[in-house]
Structure to design on (511 residues):
C-alpha cells in the first residue's frame, strides 16, 4: 500500500482554502492530531518526488506553515519537509546497508544527526531533533528490520502528527480510506491563459 | 483490533489496552469500539469459540456483525468462507487469518507482536576535537561558535560553546586535521566514540555503545593508529584491548582511553559542554571564535593571532 499524503499543523480551514486555491484537488482530513491532505495523482503514470511535491509546495506557500509530505512504496520511504525556504528530504531504502567501516559509519551518523536537528528546528520543534535522528532502519542482528511505513509512523509520532496518513494515497485508487475525509476540488484558475487552455 | 497505531491510541485513547501492534493496527485486550471511536478508526472483533464471530465498528457508525460485517472491497466471499466453511483441515488459525484478510486487518496481529517503542531521543552529547596547534588559527573555518584551548605544544582542544548551530565533531576534525591528525571525541550516557581524521580524510573510528559496525580488525587498526598519533606506540596493545572492552560504561571507556594515551585533557569522557566552556573561559591562552561562514571565516583564519577573548 503506497503513501502519498501531506501532514501539517495548519488549521483545516486554512488548508482547505489552500487546496481550493491550488491546481490539484484532493481530500482534506481534520484529524485530532493535525490535518491530512491526500492529493489527486498527477496525470502521468510515472511521477517523480518533485512532481508529487508540487501541490504540497503550493499548499505550504498558501498556509505559511511547514508540512511533511510522506511518500512510500515497496522500495523507498521519503519524508519531505516543506517550508517557506525550500524542502528537505529524509529517505529510507528498504534494503539499506550502512557503511561497514566504523569511521565512515560514525561520520555519516553524525551528519544524519545534525541534519535531523536542523529539520526539527525548521519544523519548529528543535527539542525533537534527537528523537527524529533515531528514526532509522539500520539492520540490527537478531531483530526484524523496521518496515518502511513504520518509519514514517515514527516520524509522525516524533512531531505529534497524525500517523493514520501513512498507507493512504490516491495513487492506487480514489478512496481516501480515512474517516471524515472531505473532497476539495481546486477552483478553476481565472485569467485569459487558463481559459484558453481549458477550452483547448 | 483497531486500525490505529499504539502511538495514536496513546494520544487519543487508553494506551493500556494495546497488547500488540503491526503496520498501523493494534490488538487490544478489550472490545475496541471505544478506542475506535476515540481514534476515529475502524475496529473489529474476532471471537473464535465453537464458531467464528466477527463484529466490525466504523467510527460514528453502527456495529455490523457476521456476514454483514464491513469487509474490504471483494472480501465478502472470503469472510463468508471463514464464517461458514466446515472442514477438519480448515484449522482455527487459517479461519482467523482468512477473516483478517477479508477485513483488511494484518494477520500478523494474531501472533500479537509487541508494540513498537517510540523513537527515543538520545542522551545529551558532548563532543570535542583534539587537533594540532594550527587549530588556534583555523577554528573559524569550522563554522561554529567555539573555544580552542591549547593543551600542550602539540595539541589543542576545540569544542562548540553551545551558542548557535553545532558543527559535527567529525566535520570539525576534518576541517582542523592538516599535517597533524585531528581526533573527534564524543560521549553521552549511551555511547562514546572517536574518529581520527588524517589530512582531511576519515581514517579510523570506534564507538562504545550505539550501532557502529565495530569488528576485531577495526579496533586493531584504530588502536594502532591512536597509539602512533599520540606518541605512545608501545601502548598499542593496551589501547586495542580497551577498545574491545564491553564491561565499561561508554563514557568511562573513553575517559580511560584518554588516560592511556596520556592526554592532558582530563575532561574527555567526563565533562559536559557547559563545564568545558567554563573551564576554557578561565584558560589564559584559550581562543574564542564566533560562528563564521564563507569568506568571513577564511579572512578570520588568515588574520587571526591567538588571543584571549570572551564570547
Amino acid at each position: 500500500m503506497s503513501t502519498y499524503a501531506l501532514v501539517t499543523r495548519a488549521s483545516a480551514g486554512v488548508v482547505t482554502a489552500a487546496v481550493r486555491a491550488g491546481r490539484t484537488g484532493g481530500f482534506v482530513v481534520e484529524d485530532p492530531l493535525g490535518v491530512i491532505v491526500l492529493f489527486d495523482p498527477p496525470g502521468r503514470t510515472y511521477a517523480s518526488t518533485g512532481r508529487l511535491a508540487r501541490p504540497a509546495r503550493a499548499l505550504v506557500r498558501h498556509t505559511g506553515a511547514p508540512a511533511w509530505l510522506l511518500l512510500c512504496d515497496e522500495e523507498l520511504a521519503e519524508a519531505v519537509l516543506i517550508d517557506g525556504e525550500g524542502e528537505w528530504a529524509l529517505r529510507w531504502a528498504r534494503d539499506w546497508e550502512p557503511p561497514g567501516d566504523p569511521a565512515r559509519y560514525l561520520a555519516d551518523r553524525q551528519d544524519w544527526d545534525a541534519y535531523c536537528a536542523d529539520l526539527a528546528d525548521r519544523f519548529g520543534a528543535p527539542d525533537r531533533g534527537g528523537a527524529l535522528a533515531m528514526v532509522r532502519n539500520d539492520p540490527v542482528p537478531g531483530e526484524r528490520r523496521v518496515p518502511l511505513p513504520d518509519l514514517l509512523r515514527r516520524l509522525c509520532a516524533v512531531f505529534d502528527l497524525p500517523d493514520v496518513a501513512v498507507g493512504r494515497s490516491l495513487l492506487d485508487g480514489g478512496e481516501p480510506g480515512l474517516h471524515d475525509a472531505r473532497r476539495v476540488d481546486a477552483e478553476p484558475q481565472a485569467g485569459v491563459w487558463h481559459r484558453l487552455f481549458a477550452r483547448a | 483490533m483497531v486500525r490505529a497505531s499504539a502511538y495514536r491510541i496513546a494520544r487519543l485513547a487508553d494506551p493500556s489496552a494495546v497488547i500488540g501492534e503491526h503496520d498501523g493496527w493494534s490488538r487490544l485486550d478489550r472490545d475496541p469500539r471505544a478506542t475506535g471511536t476515540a481514534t476515529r478508526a475502524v475496529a473489529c472483533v474476532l471471537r473464535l469459540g465453537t464458531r467464528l464471530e466477527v463484529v466490525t465498528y466504523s467510527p460514528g457508525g453502527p456495529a455490523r456483525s457476521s456476514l454483514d460485517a464491513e469487509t474490504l472491497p471483494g472480501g465478502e466471499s472470503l469472510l463468508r468462507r471463514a464464517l461458514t466453511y466446515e472442514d477438519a483441515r480448515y484449522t482455527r488459525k487459517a479461519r482467523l487469518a482468512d477473516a483478517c484478510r477479508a477485513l483488511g486487518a494484518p494477520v500478523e496481529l494474531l501472533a500479537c507482536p509487541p508494540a513498537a517503542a517510540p523513537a527515543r531521543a538520545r542522551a545529551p552529547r558532548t563532543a570535542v576535537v583534539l587537533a594540532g596547534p594550527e587549530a588556534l588559527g583555523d577554528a573559524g573555518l569550522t563554522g561554529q561558535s567555539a573555544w580552542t584551548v591549547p593543551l600542550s605544544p602539540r595539541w589543542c582542544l576545540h569544542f562548540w560553546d553551545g551558542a548557535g548551530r553545532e558543527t559535527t565533531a567529525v566535520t570539525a576534525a576534518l576541517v582542523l586535521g592538516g599535517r597533524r591528525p585531528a581526533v573527534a571525541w564524543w560521549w553521552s550516557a549511551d555511547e562514546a566514540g572517536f574518529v581520527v581524521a588524517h589530512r582531511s580524510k576519515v581514517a579510523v573510528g570506534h564507538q562504545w555503545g550505539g550501532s557502529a559496525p565495530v569488528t576485531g580488525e577495526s579496533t586493531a587498526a584504530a588502536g594502532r593508529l591512536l597509539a602512533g598519533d599520540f606518541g605512545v606506540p608501545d601502548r598499542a596493545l593496551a589501547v586495542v584491548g580497551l577498545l574491545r572492552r564491553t564491561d565499561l560504561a561508554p563514557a568511562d571507556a573513553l575517559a580511560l582511553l584518554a588516560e592511556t594515551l596520556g592526554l592532558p585533557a582530563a575532561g574527555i569522557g567526563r565533562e559536559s559542554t557547559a563545564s568545558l566552556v567554563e573551564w576554557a573561559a578561565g584558560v589564559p591562552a584559550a581562543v574564542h571564535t564566533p560562528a563564521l561562514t564563507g569568506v568571513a571565516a577564511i579572512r578570520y583564519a588568515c588574520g587571526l593571532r591567538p588571543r584571549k577573548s570572551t564570547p
Notes: The CA atoms of residues 161 and 277 of chain B lie 6 Å apart. Residues 6-111 of chain B form one domain. Residues 305-311 of chain B have pLDDT under 50 and may be disordered.
